[in-house]
């Protein structure tokens, strides 16, 4: 094993556990202490993850290609690939067709058919969504369960039952289960607070792992969504993804690193007050919270009222357009300081397209440009996710791929 | 060299060059590519930095202690220490006094007297401030130069002349020169835009390095300040430092990593619009920018006007208190979305204490708590820096310590 191999692997560790990786960062505070000793088996795991990442990203290649791409020695690559083949994660795909002289190289690839991933999206207030996915994050099977107002333990029971049904629906060994929950979730998979589900300090990761016997990763739904947008949606590595539904929450990636915050509450912008001219009453008791302006149930109720009230369709359309414009403007007012402070160049919205796309999105980006420095943010882009309503489920797949293939 | 040694060193690299380190992060985007090959001499430099950081943080210890603390083998430590002694960075401090049997251990430490650091703070609109500092960031010698309205090349000439005078004032070999400039500065030390100094795309790092023959690091003044607060001011690793002077700018650390933004403009919050009820005209042509509310010249002018206008001292005091409260409230309105989005628990202000401490800071923190979720931000702290007006100079020292000792 060469020096470079371990170093290369370490970036994998940092990627998958940004919070832990970052705790040792920055010189030269007197509190700085070297991190815990890294044992040889950790280095091996990092190198294994590096091989998997390389194959995952590039597809079938020879062992020599992997060696060249990763900087690992051929001996190390052969050794790791043998282990990955034995584990059923990598498969030989036959010899390379080509014109090169000499013995043709055997191509290897991730065995994308050998395992499946289970994802759960608990962020919809009416249904829990579940899916069986392949290793490319493609959805093979869906199961939805009506929440029927369940909270607390009954809601946990629905999660466990849905997980069991998804396991039964899977047709390959399950690599892991990714769960995207609303609320504040820590890195140990404890849901500290998800008011809509009545969950407080719920050990969701442990509960599902105990019941299923599978590796389980739990994260906040907006954090899952931003991982999906980055992994599958061709997003930049500096990105804010804003989910607008029953509530409003954001997921943040900075330099490709997910931001969790000092209390795992990063992105919880729904109850930030917007503007200084009053606003609608929020369910939380305050007025002019971002959620009170832009949450989907509020917009739907207002649109219904406009339609019931308006004398003709044209008038209704104009008033609905203005409603969506106002909501977009409020979203822009709330986000402008964040865009300025983080120098963001890209914002992605996730939620019902028929409400977000058009007047709302347009007003948001115009407001953002008007309320920040044009010099920097004149080229700011704002778009809807291309991943649609499946963004959270696919984010759950990214969580599993990262946790199970990225780092053991 | 063991596997663990290289791994340990790599966290140093990530710390000092967060932007470059982060670009390879996150699985499993198809665009992910392994980072450039790390050569053995890099690993050696990382291990060297690890030894220096350990000694810098903990002070005199034996080679065996260093080995234990770092996880590096004794042979590697002895080898690196010999090199560091030859370079004049580490010195033997005599044998340990104590009761342990056997041969007493020789203590080694950073030779804190062997080198000095030069720092320049270009962020004050009236003067350039310079200092010669020791390796603990203590200021040994100060030189200030009146700016006298200089901009463009004449301002560069003042920087070069000040640097030359500081080099003459230094009494030890200079480890490096740290320069904190206003405006947008990239990692190569190019000042992309510093309007007050009339600088655009100025290669400040190269200019000063060519003139001085010393290693030079250039950064934005607020970014320098947040490093100082983290390194010397006992701040947490999640921190926003807001500098209020002629303009308003912020430095951000998240998980101990400095945030620079996609265009190196992170923290440029001075021209974010505050509130939705109008406000003072800003020099930039917009209204209600954060700077228009809280910049020091504006507050000083208003206070002068109140004093000239008020019939008695009590009335004047009340009106000044209200002015500062209003400014603090506006600062809180601007920062609340950032606090919510990043889940910050600590904000530090830097600027004239007589204006910031008291009514202004109090109104800021009250506004922040009122406009974010009490559940998370009820315990938010806001305080003035303990480093006073020297925070930027000391940040320049941190930049040099990081660049020269942290990573070669």
TrEMBL record, chains A, B:
Molecular functions per Gene Ontology: DNA-binding transcription factor activity; kinase activity
Keyword Calcium: no
Ranges annotated as biased composition (Polar residues): 1-25
Keyword RNA-binding: no
Pfam family, one: MarR_2
Limits of the HTH marR-type domain: 48-95
Keywords for the protein's UniProt record, in alphabetical order: Kinase, Transferase
Region (Disordered): 1-31
PROSITE patterns: ROK
Family, similarity comment: Belongs to the ROK (NagC/XylR) family.
Protein name per its UniProtKB record: Sugar kinase of the NBD/HSP70 family, may contain an N-terminal HTH domain
Species the sequence originates in: Okibacterium fritillariae
